[in-house]
Amino acid sequence: MTFSIVARCAETGQLGIAISSSSIAVGARCPWLRPGVGAVSTQNITLPALGPDVLDLLEQGLAPGAAIDTALTRNGYSQYRQLTAIDHQGRTVHFSGSETLGTHNALSGEQCVAAGNMLADRTVIDAMVQAFEQGEGQLADRLLAAMHAAIAAGGEAGPVHSAALVVVGELTWPIINLRVDWADENPIGELQKLWVAYRPQVQDYIDRALAPDRSPGYGVAGDDR
Fold this sequence. Notes:
Layout: E1 2-8, E2 15-21, E3 31-34, E4 38-44, H1 50-59, H2 64-75, E5 81-87, E6 92-96, E7 105-109, E8 112-117, H3 123-134, H4 139-152, E9 162-168, E10 176-180, H5 187-198, H6 202-210
Antiparallel strand pairs: 1-2, 1-8, 2-9, 3-4, 4-5, 5-6, 7-8, 9-10
Protein name: DUF1028 domain-containing protein
Organism: Pseudomonas helleri
Pfam family, one: DUF1028
């Protein structure tokens, strides 16, 4: 049903999540991030409330493992949940309940943690971690490299139809928040196209938000800057 990778860039401190699923609009429910705090993916039979709950606990100073344990105890039905988290220090944790669907796996790596359920093979997750650790470029590039590696290793047992990429930095809002809510085929490829188009514009949108009087124009009709 879902596979994801949650990670931190050791150079910039950025936090990010890339995720894909056979379900519609995975980006609307599963990835949760808070600048300077951490990132959480809540998946399998998803309870979206677990994302902000874990982030609140991380912000209060709990370690990732304690934060997930506390959130699961509060909300119940832990046997149906699969969660991963990373904090602003790069500490990771993963949890897969006894009712996690199908073939599933989770693995922590260097500044990252990946997990999935209803997988074609458990090695899909190993491939994701390896691709991220060996990847180059921005955090978003490395996250997408992990997603492509997942597909190459077999991906889900069935086709995936949605995907998302979210990255936070020092600002209070995500600097990257791209979603493919439904594609008949290859949503990760469609997400890659979105990132290629958005990558050269990331800083422009930050500049427009923070300094609109000095920011570049949009290059569209009606914008005469």
